[in-house]
């Protein structure tokens, strides 16, 4: 599984960070998915290997502008690229009202269909390629969701020693068995696929969360996940100073949850623009130090255009830094 | 007068060019104006000396997304910067419907007032600082306008030789005379301001046009203008191939109009992304060659973040190139 961050700032873009957007795909798949689409997401996409043509669906965590104001422009540009495949947009119902309203008020004509799915707690979609996707409700000023992406198909290996012991010769039949089909043998026996498939490895699962002041709402989803991507808008001291009104998480709160949930990998994102890369004021190093003090797993702080890979063993690696 | 291009691509952004946006201000003024606000305009503003706080008004030429999809994000970011001054948005009525619709559907709360002005042919506003602004109707698939910015106040110089001949001693009185006030002299004479002001120079006037397939619609406005900023989406051959449907101008058509109108300065912008900076395909050099063949004035092809100055004598200079 591959992830690429298109925006990692909260509220407003900065010179280094755009507002939220995350590209996700199964390695080698022709489809990809987008979680959130802040203004300028299409500009970031121009700097990646992703195309608005092969985008299969967009998941919008919540209706705040820094997570959705890039939708109209991305839809328009996909149209100018002559996209014809339907595009799914899944999110809280306000997202459909927003997008339909803009299409209508600006006379936007698209050469492809836009399909909307209204997301609520427990919403699941299994009809998309590569992943089963589930929504989990979060706690924010407006309805906000996390999307959990679970691999749909695992290629299970054949128990070749057993096949040979049972006198089943290698050939096209082995492929059928591996694909889950039972086969008739020349001696009139039937070989059942289930008898010759080795146990599958664990399905990879990645949770991408929207804005949220209560990470523990993801406790159940996190049980079988290898990676959580979650906001850490502030350090704890800044959050205490601002108060609970904005309903965001601190680095400490997110990291402590990931530690308690036993999550092997954590990527923090959605940083307040007040945190600079370096300098005398609040810096990204403050966010990192706070998170490392509370979490002993594999921790990353996302930057724009960073690409990550989660391998079959659930090991997360940063592929490119910017 | 200073202009800075924030976007110079038509339809979609490219890696080098954003969609339409142009900043304009009177040199030394604390206010500035924006014409068009395509997606990502606020990102470009981050790379300039302009701030969403001191932006006085936004003029939207027409409702197409590449000219207005950056409005919601810019409004939101100005709010996060704690802007309190009202902001005027002037454009065809669809612009107000679009912006109000997004504010409503996404629950955007702003700490300042947004005022809308519905632009139609002949619309004028004289209540803004620095400029009187007039709209002229263009020809496009949807209602589209040009905005003409004319300097409001010209500082007229005093005829000091005449003052001395008439025995009016230098002092605070000279300043009053220059500001247009008559003054009482110690010998009971009255010195009239009008008698001592030298003739004013011509007021500078800049026309910034939206999408338009008929440049000659600007013939009247162009009579006393020093600069026209106008689209040249295609070269003539490409326009002929595409046909008149999109209702854009070729470089040749725009340049020929500027030549006929006697405009001393012309900046072309809004280039189709098919024109590359260099390479084997259609290039910016094709646009330039076609325009130069038809126009013998001071010609520029705009690039993103370029700054231009129009001095008191109507001479246009490129201040920085990118």
UniProtKB/TrEMBL annotation, chains A, B:
Requisite cofactors: Zn(2+)
Catalysed reactions, as listed in the record: Endonucleolytic cleavage of RNA, removing extra 3' nucleotides from tRNA precursor, generating 3' termini of tRNAs. A 3'-hydroxy group is left at the tRNA terminus and a 5'-phosphoryl group is left at the trailer molecule
Active site, UniProt feature: 66 (proton acceptor)
Listed Pfam families: Anti-Pycsar_Apyc1
E.C. designation(s): 3.1.26.11
Gene3D superfamilies hit by this protein: Ribonuclease Z/Hydroxyacylglutathione hydrolase-like
Keyword Hydrolase in record: yes
Manner of cofactor binding, per the entry note: Binds 2 Zn(2+) ions.
Residues the entry annotates as binding Zn(2+) 2: 66-67, 211, 270
UniProt binding sites for Zn(2+) 1: 62, 64, 140, 211
Keywords tagged on the record: Endonuclease, Hydrolase, Metal-binding, Nuclease, tRNA processing, Zinc
Origin superkingdom: Bacteria
Similarity remark: Belongs to the RNase Z family.
Self-association state and partner proteins as the record states: Homodimer.
General function of this protein: Zinc phosphodiesterase, which displays some tRNA 3'-processing endonuclease activity. Probably involved in tRNA maturation, by removing a 3'-trailer from precursor tRNA.
Name of this chain's protein: Ribonuclease Z
Species name: Massilia jejuensis
């Amino acid at each position: 599984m591959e992830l690429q961050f298109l925006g990692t700032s909260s509220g407003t873009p900065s010179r280094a960070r755009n507002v939220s957007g995350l590209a996700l795909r199964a390695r080698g798949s022709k489809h990809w998915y987008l979680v959130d689409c802040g203004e300028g997401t299409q500009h970031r996409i121009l700097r990646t290997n992703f195309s608005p043509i092969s985008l299969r669906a967009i998941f919008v965590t919540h209706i705040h502008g820094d997570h959705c104001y890039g939708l109209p422009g991305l839809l328009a540009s996909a149209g100018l690229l002559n996209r014809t495949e339907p595009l799914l947009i899944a999110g809280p119902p306000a997202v459909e009202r927003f997008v339909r309203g803009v299409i209508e008020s600006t006379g936007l004509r698209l050469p492809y269909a836009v399909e909307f799915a209204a997301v609520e707690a427990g919403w699941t979609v299994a009809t998309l390629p590569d992943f089963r996707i589930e929504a989990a409700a979060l706690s924010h000023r407006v309805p906000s969701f996390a999307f959990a992406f679970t691999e749909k198909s695992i290629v299970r290996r054949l128990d070749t020693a057993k096949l040979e012991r049972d006198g089943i010769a290698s050939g096209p039949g082995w492929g059928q068995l591996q694909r889950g089909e039972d086969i008739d043998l020349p001696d009139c026996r039937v070989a059942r696929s289930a008898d010759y498939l080795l146990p599958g490895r664990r399905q990879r699962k990645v949770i991408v969360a929207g804005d949220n002041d209560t990470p523990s709402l993801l406790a159940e989803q996190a049980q079988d996940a290898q990676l959580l991507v979650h906001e850490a808008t502030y350090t704890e001291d800044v959050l205490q100073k601002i108060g609970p009104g904005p309903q965001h998480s601190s680095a400490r709160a997110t990291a402590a949850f990931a530690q308690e949930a036993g999550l092997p990998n954590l990527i923090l994102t959605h940083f307040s623009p007040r945190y600079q890369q370096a300098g005398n004021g609040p810096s990204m190093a403050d966010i990192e130090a706070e998170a490392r003090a509370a979490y002993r797993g594999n921790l990353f702080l996302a930057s724009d255009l960073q690409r990550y890979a989660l391998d079959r063993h659930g090991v997360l690696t940063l592929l490119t830094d910017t």
